[in-house]
Write a structure and sequence with these properties.
By secondary structure, this protein is of the alpha/beta class. The chain has 13 helices and 14 strands. Helix 3 runs parallel beside helix 4.
Length: about 375
C-alpha cells in the first residue's frame, strides 16, 4: 500500500496476478512459489549469486526496488507470521569465494535450502576447485553429506562460448554412486518439485540444476497450479501424444531443445517420432528408461539429441550409461570450444540438429509433395 514501484515492476506484478487467474505459471512464478511454500512450512531458504535478487534474465524479482527511494521490498519475507528465515544476497564477482562459503554454510545449516546461482552456467568454472575437491567427492572421501544447490543457466541461443554451455560434461564425468543429483527440467512444475524434494529428503547430497534462459518466457513452458500442488518430480517425461504402434524413431533429450523438437514435430504433423525428456541425468533413472524402451519396442531408431558438441554435454555420459539400447547421437560437431561466437553460425548448427533428427520425416514429407 502506498509504495511507488518502477513501471516495469508494476507490469511484472500484474502479469503474475494474471498467471494465477489464468492458471498458466511461468518459470519465475513456479520458482517463487517453491521458495514461498518452503518458508511457510518452516524451512529456511538462503540464496546467493552475482545477480540473484533480480535474476540475470529479469525473471525473478525476489527483491523489489522502489522508484522514489532506496527502499527495498522482499515479498517472500511477508508471507505469514512465524515463517522461516529467507536470506537473499547479490554477491561479489568471485564464484570461488562465494560457492566455497555457501558450501560451508550448507554444512552448518543442513535444513536450509542453500542455493548458489551463476550469472551464466559457464562461469561456474571459476569455482572449479570447490567442485572437484568438495562438491563432487566429499561424501566418498570423508563421508560428509552436503545439500548445496547450484543453478546454472544453460542453453544455446547464439551468445557464444562463455554464455551457452555450463559444461554439463564435467559434472557428469564426476558422477558415480549417486554422489549428486544432476537435472535439467523442462517445465516450471518439475523445477518446483525438485527444489522441494531437496529439502524433503532425509539425507543431503548436492543438486546441480541446469536452468533455462529463453524458456523463461516461452509460451509453452508453463505449468498449472494442480501440477504444482498434486504432482511430483518426474525423472523422465514421456511423449503423451505418441502412439507406440506408429513410432519408428525414439528421441531422448533434455532441456531447451525439447521445445524446438516439439515445434518441428507439430509443423510436420508426424506421428512416427516420439520425444522423451530425460529430466534427471544422475542418478540415471534406468528403470523408467527401460519401461519407455519396452513401450516403444517397434522403434527402429533410438537417438540422443543435444545442443552441445558431440564431445561435450550429456552424450559422453549417456553413451556409457544408457540402459540396453545403442543410441545414435545428433549434436554439434566435435569442438574445442563449447559454442561458436557467431549467432548466424549457431542458428545454422541448431537447424542442422533439428533436420538431422527428423531426416526420415522430412524425406517422407518431400516425397508426398
Amino acid at each position: 500500500e502506498g509504495k511507488k514501484f518502477f513501471s516495469k515492476m508494476e507490469r511484472i506484478l500484474g502479469d503474475r496476478a494474471r498467471m494465477l487467474e489464468e492458471d498458466r505459471l511461468d518459470w519465475g512464478m513456479a520458482e517463487l512459489l517453491a521458495y514461498g511454500s518452503l518458508l511457510v512450512e518452516g524451512h529456511p531458504v538462503r540464496f546467493t549469486g552475482q545477480d540473484v535478487e533480480r535474476g540475470t534474465f529479469s525473471h525473478r524479482h525476489a527483491v523489489v526496488k522502489m522508484a522514489d527511494s532506496d527502499e527495498e521490498f522482499i515479498h517472500l519475507k511477508h508471507l505469514q507470521e512465524g515463517q522461516a528465515l529467507l536470506q537473499i544476497y547479490n554477491s561479489l564477482l568471485s564464484e570461488y569465494a562465494v560457492l566455497g562459503f555457501e558450501y560451508g554454510y550448507a554444512f552448518a545449516s543442513p535444513n536450509t535450502l542453500s542455493i548458489w546461482e551463476a550469472q551464466f552456467g559457464d562461469f561456474v568454472n571459476g569455482a572449479q576447485i570447490i567442485l572437484d575437491q568438495y562438491l563432487c567427492a566429499a561424501e566418498e572421501k570423508w563421508k560428509a553429506m552436503n545439500g548445496t544447490v547450484l543453478l546454472l543457466p544453460h542453453g544455446y541461443e547464439g551468445q557464444g562460448a562463455e554464455h551457452s554451455s555450463a559444461r554439463m560434461e564435467r559434472f557428469l564425468s564426476s558422477c558415480a554412486e549417486g554422489n549428486m543429483q544432476v537435472v535439467n527440467c523442462t517445465t516450471p512444475a518439475n523445477f518446483f518439485h525438485v527444489l522441494r524434494r531437496q529439502v524433503a529428503w532425509p539425507f543431503r547430497r548436492p543438486l546441480v540444476v541446469f536452468t533455462p534462459k529463453s524458456l523463461l518466457r516461452h509460451q509453452k513452458c508453463v505449468s498449472t497450479l494442480e501440477e504444482l500442488g498434486k504432482g511430483r518430480f518426474q525423472e523422465v517425461i514421456d511423449d503423451g501424444a505418441a502412439d507406440p504402434k506408429k513410432v519408428d524413431t525414439l528421441v531422448f533429450c533434455q532441456g531447451k531443445i525439447y521445445y524446438e523438437l516439439l515445434e518441428k514435430k507439430e509443423e510436420l504433423g508426424t506421428d512416427t517420432l516420439a520425444i522423451v525428456r530425460v529430466e534427471q541425468l544422475h542418478p540415471l533413472p534406468e528403470a523408467q528408461l527401460k519401461q519407455v524402451l519396452a513401450k516403444y519396442k517397434q522403434a527402429e531408431r533410438h537417438v540422443w539429441v543435444q545442443e552441445e558438441p558431440e564431445n561435450m554435454g550429456a552424450w559422453p555420459y549417456m553413451s556409457m550409461c544408457f540402459p540396453g539400447e545403442r543410441l545414435e547421437v545428433v549434436a554439434r560437431p566435435r569442438s574445442a570450444a563449447p559454442a561458436t561466437g557467431s549467432a548466424q553460425r549457431s542458428a545454422a548448427q541448431q537447424k542442422a540438429i533439428i533436420d538431422k533428427t527428423f531426416e526420415k520425416n522430412l524425406k517422407r514429407a518431400k516425397a508426398r509433395a
